[in-house]
Amino acid sequence: MMRFIKYIPLLVSLVQAKHVVQDWDITYVTTNRGLNQPPRRGVGVNNKLPIPVVRAELGDTLILNVRNSLDVPTSVHAHGILQHGTNYYDGVPMVNGCGIAPGSNFTYEIPLQQSGTYWLHGHAAEQNFDGLQTPLIITDPNDPYPVDEEYLFAVDDWWPITIKESLAILQQPGGLGTPFVYPPQTLINGVFGNLTKPVTFEPEKTYRIRLVSMMSLPLWEFAIDDHELYIVEVDGVLTKPKAVNVVRMAPAQRVSVLVRAKNTVAKNYQYHITVLDEYVPPIPGVYPAQFDGAVVYHPDAPVDIVQSIPSERFDELSIETLEYEPVLVADQSMFLNLTYGFTEEEIPFETINLIAYQDSLVPSLFSALTTGERAINPITYGPQTNTRVLKYNEVVEMLFWSPTELPHPMHLHGHVFQIIERGLVNDTTGASRQRVPDTGFSPLQRDTVHVTQGEYVIARFRANNPGVWNLHCHFSWHIGLGFNMLMVVGPRELQRTMRLPPAVIEQCRIQGIATHGNAAGHNSFNYMGAPDLPFLEAALPEAAAKLAAAGGSI
C-alpha cells in the first residue's frame, strides 16, 4: 500500500484564526438549471443557482449572514458540523430555534472545530430539494494526508417539480402517487452531468478528490480508469487509507480519496460518475445514467478506454478510523423500525416505529432549557416528536431495521457513530451477519449510514454533546413525510451550560412562537393544545402494494 500519512510534530499553531464571512440573501430563482426541462421556481442565494462553494480552515469561525427574501421561513444546516456548544445554530426550525422569518435577517456564528468535507443546506420545508445547498470544505494546515492539489465533485439531482408538489403527489390516498413521472436530471458541480469538466494530473503527484452527495434520492458511484482510490475521510472523519476501485455514495454522505498519478504522460484516462437504478424505477438516461469526464495528463495523448467500469457496495465494516477508538460498549440499545404507515384514509407517511414526526408548538431545545426536571421526561417534547432522552456521555446503540422495499440514508445531527454490524432482517440463520472485530479494531465513524431495503444496521455513539439533535432519513421526500425523531442529550448539563443568544429568541418573537414550556407551551404537565399523534397502520393498501411491486415505490 502506498504511504500517504505525514507525521507532524505537535506545534503551537501560528496561523491566525479568521472569520469567514458569507452574505446570503436567500431568494427564489426561476431556472431550469441548464437542463432540457421547463423552468420552475427554486431557492437560491443572491438570486443565483448554484450556490458557490464555501471554504474555510480549521479554527476559523463561519459568519453566515442570512437575509430571508422568501415568503416562508428558511434556515441553514451545516451538515456534519457537530455544533459543540452551539446547538441553537444547527438550523432545524422548531427544534433548535424558530427558523428565519420572511423579510428578516439572522446571523449564524459557527466555530469550525472540525476539518473535512461537509455541506450547507436548507432544513426548513426541505428547501435543499429546491436548490438551497452547497459544499462546505474545511481544510487543516496540518492535515496528515498532504496533497499537491484537490478536486471536488458535488453531485445532486434537479427535478422539474418542487418539493411541495412532490409531497402532494406522494400523499395521494392509497399511496398511489409517484413523482417519477417527472424525472430529474443529474448535476455535477451545479451543471448538467454531461458537461462535467476535465481534471488535470501531473506525473507522480498526489491528488485529493472530495465527493459530496447532495442527492435527494439515488445512489451514485465514482471511479477513475486504471487508478486506485485510497479512502482517507468519511463524513469528516479521517480514516486509515483503504484501497478501492470505486466509491458508492448515498444521499448526504461525503468521502475523500487520494489518487497517486502515473509516472508518465503517455495516456489520458476517464473518470466516471454513475447514477444507479437501485430502489428507483428504471428511466432511460436517468436511472441508470453514466457521466464521463477526462483525466488529462497531456493534451495530445490518446485516451485509454476500458471495457467495464467497477461497481460495488461501500464496505464500511472494513474501514478503520485514523485515530484509534475501540468498539464502544453500549449502555442502552434502541430498536428503530424504519417503515411507512397509513392513516384510515390511506394517506401514507414515513415513520420511525410507526410515529410520523410533527413539530411541537415550542422549539424542542427551548423546552429542554426551560422545563427544569421535566426536561428528562420524553413526553415534555410531545409524543409526535418520538423523542429519546439520553444521559450525558452514555453509549447508545441504534438498531436500524428496514423491513420494507425502501432503503434509508439515516443521518444523526451533533454526533458521529461507529458502524458495528450489518445483516438481513429476514435472516434466521445468521449467515448474512457481518460485524467488526470486538478488539484491536477502530470502527469507521460517520454521521450518515445507508440502510438498504431488507437490511439492519447496528451503530453506536457516545452521547457527549448536550443538545437536541435530529435523527432522520435524508431522502428529501421521506423527511417531508415525517421520517424524523429527536435525541435530547444531557438536558441537565444543557441547562447548566447553555444560554440562548438574543437573536435566536428574537426570531421566535417575530413569528409569535412561544419560547418556554413543553410541547404545548405550558410550564406543567398540561399538554392541551399540543399536536396530535395520528394513528397509523403498517399494512400497505392493496393498490399501493401493486404499485410498489411494479417499481413505483417511494
From the structure above, extract its key features.
single chain; 554 residues; mainly beta; seven-stranded mixed β-sheet; 32 strands; 35% strand; globular
Give a summary of the structure in a few sentences:
This protein is mostly beta strands and 554 residues long.
Mean pLDDT: 94
Helix percent band: under 10%
Evaluate the radius of gyration.
Answer: 23 Å
Span of the ends, CA to CA: 42 Å
Total number of strands: 32
What structural category arises from helix and sheet content? mainly beta
Q: Detail the poorly predicted runs.
A: 7-14
Overview of the structural elements:
- The chain is mostly beta strands and 554 residues long.
- It is built from six helices and 32 strands.
- The strands form six sheets. A seven-stranded mixed β-sheet has the order 11-10-9-13-18-15-16, with no helix packed on it.
- The longest helix has 10 residues, at 502-511.
- The two termini are 42 Å apart.
- 47% of the residues are buried.
Task: Present the secondary structure layout.
Elements: E1 19-31, E2 40-45, E3 54-57, E4 61-68, E5 77-79, E6 105-111, E7 116-121, E8 133-139, E9 149-158, H1 163-170, E10 185-188, E11 191-192, E12 199-200, E13 206-213, E14 220-224, E15 229-234, E16 237-244, E17 247-249, E18 254-260, E19 269-275, E20 289-296, E21 332-342, E22 348-352, H2 364-370, E23 388-390, E24 395-401, E25 408-412, E26 417-424, E27 434-435, E28 445-446, E29 448-451, E30 455-462, E31 467-473, H3 476-480, E32 484-489, H4 491-497, H5 502-511, H6 542-549
